[in-house]
Design goal:
By secondary structure, the chain is α/β, with parallel strands linked by helices. The protein is built from 13 helices and 13 strands. The strands form two sheets. A seven-stranded mixed sheet has the order 9-8-10-11-7-12-13, with helices on both faces. Strands 3-2-1-6-5-4 form a six-stranded antiparallel sheet, covered by helices on one side. The protein is globular, with a radius of gyration of 21 Å. The termini are far apart.
């Protein structure tokens, strides 16, 4: 396959992704090119099965020489790919069974606001803080980056702030309005998340987006930044507010954990945990658990009683908090999602069943 042919083929496939409103494209040797639509994998059987040579040629067509070198050295590489200035993709190229595979995630060019994402406008309240830590959590592919981008874009159009993002790779591109926005990519603009976060103390930042809290150094520096006059918005791959608290604390050695609980209790603003659920008739809709730090939550974190946080969320609806099960039940009762789809994501399935049985 010639370089020109490879470039044309990958562009044709990416055009299909955009036209069919797919979220991902997978290229695996011995399989048809496959797209993910509304969470489901759909093979493009009108295409040919991918050969070893084609997979390598397609990956070479979108990789820089530095990307190719990192792939050879590490066995995988992450980068972003600009498709004819019409769409951007987050790309992971990796080896499996000695062959090259590609996973490409579509990043929409326009940043949607909370209303367009079917998210509550009260989430904008978190952007009003001058300092503190907001955590946006959930499984991979369930909209954490999109929600975070909506909050930053709101700040961009409504406040005069200096925003720094630290991402791997850069996803959404912001068109600067009232804010100065500097976007730093790990591996290109900074060596690591932790070094990038550490540098914000010298960069006169007001707001910092951290693409992922991956390790102890990044988490520790992020919490210090949240204490010292920075609003930190960060993502974590956790499934609930309580699990998020435990994950952060457990990263640290046992002898530091009491101090970390006290620090986290002080700086935390809230946790937004989300899932994207298939909608009746097509598309996906978010279901949310929202924790807003209050004195009760702060005390539970300090006292190592995160297991009681679920109870606080259940009884604090008037304060804007909501449990994932109640969010799911509301979507079912409004006919937006099916009970079967919601049941897959329910935290307490007996309680969820009781909620949807109520009239």
């Amino acid at each position: 396959m010639t370089t020109e042919h490879s470039e044309q083929k990958i562009k044709n496939l990416l055009r299909i992704v955009a036209q069919q409103n797919a979220s991902d494209l997978h290229l695996v040797v011995g399989r048809y090119p496959t797209v993910r639509i509304d969470g489901k994998l759909i093979p493009l059987s009108q295409e040919s099965l991918l050969t070893v040579d084609e997979a390598k040629s397609l990956s070479d067509a979108i990789m820089s020489e530095d990307n190719k070198k990192e792939l050879m050295e590490k066995g995988q590489v992450d980068f972003s790919y600009n498709f004819d200035d019409k769409a951007r993709f987050r790309v992971n190229v990796f080896y499996q069974k000695g062959n090259v595979s590609l996973a490409m995630r579509l990043i929409t060019s326009r940043i949607r606001n909370l209303e367009e994402l079917n998210l509550p406008s009260m989430l904008y309240e978190f952007t009003r803080y001058s300092q503190g830590l907001l955590l946006v959590t959930g499984p991979v592919g369930h909209g954490k980056s999109t929600t975070s981008a909506a909050l930053l874009d709101y700040l961009n159009h409504n406040e005069n702030k200096h925003i720094i993002t630290i991402e791997d790779p850069i996803e959404y591109l912001y068109e600067q309005d009232r804010c100065i926005i500097n976007q730093r990519e790990v591996g290109r603009d900074t060596h690591s998340f932790s070094e990038g976060v550490r540098a914000v103390f010298r960069e006169d930042a007001n707001v910092v987006l951290i693409g992922e809290l991956r390790d102890l150094d990044t988490i520790s520096t992020a919490m210090t930044a949240a204490e010292t006059g920075h609003l930190i918005i960060a993502t974590l791959h956790t499934n609930s507010a309580a699990q998020t608290i435990d994950r952060i604390v457990d990263v640290f050695p046992a002898h530091q954990q009491n101090q970390v609980r006290s620090q986290l209790a002080s700086v935390l603003l809230g946790v937004v945990s989300q899932r994207l659920i298939p909608k009746v008739g097509g598309g996906r809709v978010p279901a949310l658990e929202i924790l807003i730090k209050n004195s009760a939550v702060e005390n539970l974190i300090r006292e190592n009683k995160s297991y009681q946080i679920d109870s606080v969320i259940e009884t604090s609806l008037k304060d804007g908090m909501v449990s994932l099960d109640k969010s799911l039940a509301s979507l079912v009762q409004r006919g937006i999602i099916t009970a079967d789809d919601a049941f897959v994501y329910a935290g307490n399935r007996e309680y969820f069943q009781m909620l949807i049985s109520k009239k």
